[in-house]
Amino acid sequence: MVMLTSPLEPEHVERIAGAFSDRIEVIFRPDLMPAPRYVADHGDPSWRRNPAQEREWHRLLGQAEVLLDFPQHEPRPLLELAPRLRWVQTTSAGVGPLVQRLGLQDSYLIVTTSSGIHAQPLADFVFAALLFHTKEIGRLVEEQRTRQWNRFAGVELAGQTMAIIGPGRIGREVARIARAFRMRVAALARDCSPGRAESLGVDQVYSRDELHLMLAEADCLVVCAPLTPETEDLLGSDEFAALKPGAVFVNIGRGAIVDEDALLRSLREGRIAFAALDVFREEPLPADSPFWDMPNVLINPHSASTVATENAKIAELFVRNLGHYLAGEVDQMSPLLDKHRLY
Amino acid sequence: MVMLTSPLEPEHVERIAGAFSDRIEVIFRPDLMPAPRYVADHGDPSWRRNPAQEREWHRLLGQAEVLLDFPQHEPRPLLELAPRLRWVQTTSAGVGPLVQRLGLQDSYLIVTTSSGIHAQPLADFVFAALLFHTKEIGRLVEEQRTRQWNRFAGVELAGQTMAIIGPGRIGREVARIARAFRMRVAALARDCSPGRAESLGVDQVYSRDELHLMLAEADCLVVCAPLTPETEDLLGSDEFAALKPGAVFVNIGRGAIVDEDALLRSLREGRIAFAALDVFREEPLPADSPFWDMPNVLINPHSASTVATENAKIAELFVRNLGHYLAGEVDQMSPLLDKHRLY
Fold it and tell me: Does pLDDT of A144 surpass 90?
């Protein structure tokens, strides 16, 4: 039995249920889930089931072999609640820390993610933010309010260097567009063997040991990495001090990759000219966070990746993986989460 | 004698004067020109020479064979003031209407423009504006002020159609980047022969007769065209009515290509969701223009093309053309203005 644990539009439920209707039963129970707050909302984390709903939910989980998304706030380990579970398809890319928290790293569970689904909207946000800064759009909006026509000379992206941490599906999409803007692109890579820059679609790769060298050249630093033991706290005071002065910083990865106090200091000193942040250590960003009031910070409520077409793409991905799963072609299912690397 | 009639930084004057110092004399007289108001300002149009300055200016013009930029506000026809003049290199691309106004269409004068120099900063502005709208940056800035964390689903550029009027150097640069964002790109072209779309780097070309067809498909319409008899008043009520509802409109060409009253009506009706305007029929935009107060308009004071590196590029271009000019290779000089087509 396939159970959908994320809110989904009827047409996408239909698409999934209809794809292999002779072979599988698909359960979708919106009455046991939070109502979506916006299109492609995968569930309000503050919502709770009442006891009757919870009993029914757990009865269904007990029969599920496949889940679309990990259920949230379960009182007992997932594999106890869902002993028949073999595969979870997630609606997010960055689920490594969740799998670790659920104690599933050493389980037999197959986890496929939606890595790649969000690459294009996230790349859109990176350039929305970068160009908002370089083309001085905020100042133009202010001057328009007061009807000021002040001609000026700006800067162009061509010739600037973008440094990417996390050249995965998202990072490579960002790199490809950056090169279309005639930027030079550098990336931090685990594997820096010859030909690696070319295969990633960047101009130069830097190893972890060379991180500060890469930062010193960056007009724009973009974090696209997942949260793993290797990336947690990767960027602190030393790294921001190593950044090229006046750089733009964009985080579309995860908040815990960054020492937020160090970032705030660099922003206040103007060492980092502008930051666009889609992710934070604590989300929703607490009302008393100093980030809200920073004039050189643009906050996105972790929605840079969310577009109205997302669920259609996830349904297609899920149906493709379902086909492979039913055919026993587990090796064809993708993108597969490496439960130890956590991405 | 080569005379520089546009403000220029000392290093660029040096570069030009030093390139062929044994063969030409280069005259640069900042005391007879307006002081630049910003980097790469090519002259405050409201500035005037006093009578003594004017006499000296005209004495120099009388000896000039080559000019960097057309002088402004001359009391008599240019070729009377500068009878030895053979070639003008301009610092702008869109000088066709000026050449027409100066009555030089049928003269022997060689005019090379700086077409192409501004392509990258202008393309940056097109995507700054488009992404400002699609990623809802204005709303994010407002919500940040009031510390609101409201997750939402946006739209992505991938799969959208961009229609380009004027697929010249600038339009093709915009098209190339649009395709990197995985947009479909259409262009209005005079020549729609087979293979034309491919050679322009777009997905489809439309003839002038098919303009409304192209507009109906456009999620974003970008005007990059020069002002010529063919493009003047090209876009009026009928064209805006033919546009796909909710489209974004960007004008980096010339204001007189557009019926501004019709544009305002379409913006008020929301038929055009958002417009980014770098050019207007009257510049500076008059203080009483309704555009200033439109909530769905972004005004750029005709500075989208201006970057701090512009004069360095113009100096290089001028030196390259000077080399060809001195070698008698007029056919190698570029980009050459077609004085009848006006671009």
Answer: yes
